[in-house]
Specification:
mainly alpha; 3 strands; single chain; elongated; about 290 residues; three-stranded antiparallel beta sheet; 2 domains; 3 helical TM bundles of succinate and fumarate reductases; binds protoporphyrin IX containing FE
C-alpha cells in the first residue's frame, strides 16, 4: 500500500539524498563545536558562531538543512508505515541486506535522534528566534555609542525623568562591569541575560546575539544534559553506521569490491562523528 503516490524507490532515493546532506552537515557542525575546547576564552567559537549567524550563504544553507531534516523524518515515517502494512508479503521474501537487524531499528534510532533534536533546539537554536531565553553577547563599542547618544539627548533636555533615571542606572552599571562579563579581547560583553543587555545597552537595543559559548559551557555543567547528549551521540553512531551502508545500496554501489570499503567508511564515520561530539561534554565534565 502506497501512502503517497510515489514509487518506494523514489522515496528511498529522496530519503537517501536528504540523509546524505545531513551526513555532510555533521562534520562541519562538529568542527565548529570542537573550537569549544580551545583555551582561548571562547574567541574562536564565538567568531565561528558569529559568522554562521550572520553570513547570508550560511542562512540559505540553514533553511535547506532544516528542510532536509524535516523531509528525511517525514519520508522515513511514511516508508516505515508502508513496510509495516506490507509485512505479510515481505516476510516471505528473504532480505539481501547485510544488516537487516539494524535496519529494522533505524526508525527507532531515528526517533531518538529526532527527540534529541527537539531538546537540542530548545537548548540552542530557538534562542535565535527569541522562543527561549539564553545568554547573549554584544560589542563593547556599542555600549559607548548608545550611551553617548543618550548623553547628547540629556544635554539637549530631550529626556524625561524616567529616561534620566534609566540613563543614570546605565552609567552606574557600565562603570562597574565585572570582568567575567567581558571576553578575553575586551571587545565584547558576554554571558549576559536579557535584563543585563537592557541595563548596559538600554531598552530596545537589538544588536546582540546568542552567546553559544557560555550556553554550551552552562549546558554541560549540568550532568543530566551531558548524559542525555552522550546517549544521543551513541544512538547517532548506530544510525549513521547503517545509514551509510543503506545509502550505498540505494545508490546501487553494491559490489563485492566496494561493499567492504563502504563498510569500513561507514564504521569509521559512525565512530568518529559521535566521538568528536562526545569529546565536548566529556571534556567539560572530566577536565574543566
Ligand atoms: C556537543 C554537541 C553539540 C553542541 C555543543 C551543539 C551546539 C549547537 C549550537 C550552539 C547550535 C546553534 C548554532 C546556530 O544556529 O548558529 C546548534 C544547532 C544545530 N545543531 Fe547542534 N550541537 C551539538 C550536536 C549536534 C548533533 C549531534 C546534531 C545532529 C544529530 C546537531 C544538529 C544541529 C542542527 C540540525 C542545528 C540547527 C542548524 C544550524 O544552526 O546550523 N547538533 N547546535
Amino acid at each position: 500500500m502506497k501512502l503517497i503516490k510515489f514509487a518506494s524507490i523514489t522515496k528511498k532515493i529522496a530519503l537517501a539524498a536528504f540523509g546524505l546532506f545531513l551526513l555532510l552537515f555533521l562534520p562541519v557542525h562538529m568542527g565548529i563545536n570542537l573550537c569549544l575546547l580551545r583555551e582561548d576564552g571562547g574567541e574562536w567559537y564565538r567568531n565561528a558562531s558569529h559568522f554562521m549567524g550572520t553570513n547570508y550563504i550560511v542562512k540559505v544553507f540553514e533553511i535547506v538543512l532544516l528542510a532536509s531534516v524535516l523531509l528525511h523524518i517525514i519520508i522515513a515515517i511514511i516508508l516505515s508505515i508502508e513496510n509495516l502494512l506490507a509485512r505479510p508479503i515481505r516476510y516471505k521474501v528473504k532480505t539481501k541486506t547485510k544488516t537487516p537487524f539494524m535496519s529494522r531499528y533505524m526508525i527507532w534510532t531515528g526517533g531518538i535522534i529526532a527527540c534529541f533534536l527537539i531538546i537540542h533546539f530548545i537548548n540552542f537554536y530557538f534562542v535565535k528566534f527569541d522562543l527561549v531565553e539564553g545568554k547573549y553577547s554584544a560589542e563593547m563599542e556599542q555600549v559607548d555609542k548608545v550611551f553617548q547618544e543618550k548623553a547628547v539627548k540629556l544635554q539637549q533636555g530631550e529626556l524625561n525623568e524616567k529616561e534620566q533615571a534609566t540613563l543614570m542606572a546605565q552609567y552606574q552599571a557600565i562603570s562597574q562591569i565585572p570582568v567575567e562579563k567581558m571576553d578575553k579581547s575586551k571587545k565584547n560583553l558576554v554571558n549576559l541575560s536579557k535584563e543585563e543587555v537592557s541595563l548596559y545597552y538600554g531598552e530596545g537595543f537589538e544588536d546582540y546575539e546568542p552567546d553559544f559559548y557560555t550556553m554550551s559551557k552552562d549546558l554541560f555543567a549540568n550532568k543530566t544534559y551531558s548524559i542525555i547528549y552522550l546517549f544521543a551521540f551513541l544512538i547517532l553512531g548506530f544510525h549513521l553506521y547503517h545509514a551509510i551502508n543503506s545509502l550505498a545500496q540505494t545508490l546501487g554501489l553494491n559490489h563485492k569490491k566496494y561493499t567492504p570499503i563502504i563498510d569500513i567508511v561507514s564504521l569509521a564515520y559512525a565512530v568518529l562523528m559521535p566521538l568528536g561530539f562526545a569529546i565536548i561534554p566529556l571534556w567539560m565534565i572530566f577536565i574543566k
